Amino acid sequence: MNLQKKILLISFISLFIIITSIFVSWRYGEYIEEEHYKSSVLDGQYILWKNVIDQHHSRMKYESKRIMRNKNLTQGLWKKELRIVKESAAYDYNGLSGSAIIKNLMIFNSKGDSVFSSDELEVEKYRNISLEVLNRKKYFYDIIKNEHGHGEIIFAFPLYYKNIIVGSGIFIQSLESSVLDYDKATNSNTYLLTSSGHKYIGQNSKLYESLFNFIPKDFMKNSLLYILDQNKRYVLSIIPIKNRKNEPVSILVSIKNDVNNFSKIKNFQNKLYIFIVIVLFLTILLWSFILRKTISSINNTFKILSQNEKLEAKVFERTEELKIALDQAKSAGRAKSAFLANMSHELRTPLNAIIGYSDMLCEDVENMGINQVKDDLNKIHRSGVHLLSLIQDILDISKIEAGKMELHNTKFNIEDMVQTVMTIAKPLAQKNKNKIILSNREFIGEIVCDEGKLRQSLLNLLSNACKFTENGHVTLGYYREQKSHTSATYLIFFVSDTGCGIPKSNQEKLFSAFSQADSSISKEFGGTGLGLVISRQFCKLMGGDVYMESVVGKGTIFEIKIPLRTSIGSTGEEKSCLAVDELENISVSS
């Protein structure tokens, strides 16, 4: 893409941003206006319902407790003393703290007969409500129609004397007086409509009639509505009033002049438009600056591209050299492993002969009674065995690094294997005057595992413990461990000693090949530093690991953890191979 096309593209993007910003601001202004009216309607509905309906319910419920606590009234109902009932009811009604809100009170006896009324009311209609309270034995609210078809708020409640229902009471408040009281208190325009939509209560009839044409015919279904004419703007809140049976009784309508809020919204929108214009102007200035910078950067880019091509050629050359070096290193590693494997094999053959003949000579010398050469022959035999062990370790480590170490799983008795290990380790412990102890917490029985590698791992740990402990204790133990959050079962072996311990700074070296915790150890105790490395790699090959804890001056604990299996595969022998990348990042965990 040449420079001219890039400039045209940037100009087109700038124009698109300007048009999009204007459209978004216009839509956002409409959204703010619409949300304002919805919020105003919801607030109006809440205030209207709370002041016209809900506060009467709350006041009636509160004042009913005073009537129910009047012992003279309830006792009079129980004893059928009508004079006492009327006097007590009249006294309570006149003293109600909500008398300015609650207009009427009626008291009925247990048969549903009226015994007190604060006004001349139609008894028969309220008698049915009284009988319903007596049957239900609990209070309830309702909104009913009176003889004129107008709505009334009622609260009916039972009256008890000594836990016996003796009558009922009904508070009555007309919706008409409630609306008029609300209009006087708030100086608002509130109307009551019949269920068919005809107005019968409301002070400002002219306002209602002028806006009536804006009200949709299905306004009963529309509880959110705002009205707009040419000169003024109003918010209309409509609340359908229904009785307990969900039958329409009346409709409550509130009309609120919203011209001031509308002007505020328009002022906010105008400020928003001015702000957007300023932002767009600054954006255009920014884009002009970017264009100038882009032109200069494009020129520099061509120069850099030519330099990059040369650099890429050099990188390609170096990459090829590194690949060749890597292949050579891999070949050298394979050659090293092959050399170690072949040399160790060639060395083991004469060493086995030396060990065998030295052992036979020891027996012959002992039988012939030639004791002066016996010690020398024993040294030859021990040195041969030690050298054979070192060669075997080197062979194992080379197989592991070459990825050729295999598992040979068989079924064997764990207790028998542990006894064999204890027998072999006993002379090692006695050499440094140590006491070797077996600690088994439970009987394990037969398991499926590579017996040879498990035995070698345990012997390596016991050999180290005996070597670095003098006049102390070396303990070998094992037990079964069941993980609570999984169904896996593990077999745990631990080897603990009371030796010198290992400092934390040297613990990381323990599982590195040809390394020991301290360089002076190899001079004093000997060894190549391969035992722990091979043991951990064997355990990883078996699906487990080796862990350790050590405190200087108190001793060390090594732990082998492997999965416990008690059945063998269908082939009778399972084999797996340890990949080289599994051995690269070996860490010590406690």
Written overview of the protein:
It is a single chain. This protein has 590 residues and is of the alpha+beta class. Among the domains are: 118 residues, Helix Hairpins (Orthogonal Bundle), CATH 1.10.287; 178 residues, Histidine kinase-like ATPase, C-terminal domain (Heat Shock Protein 90), CATH 3.30.565. It is 54% helix and 21% strand. The chain contains 13 helices and 17 strands. The protein has a five-stranded antiparallel β-sheet, with helices on both faces. Strands 7-6-10-9-8 form a five-stranded antiparallel β-sheet, covered by helices on one side.
Characteristic terms for this protein:
single chain, 590 residues, alpha+beta, Helix Hairpins, Heat Shock Protein 90, 5-stranded antiparallel sheet, 13 helices, elongated, disordered C terminus
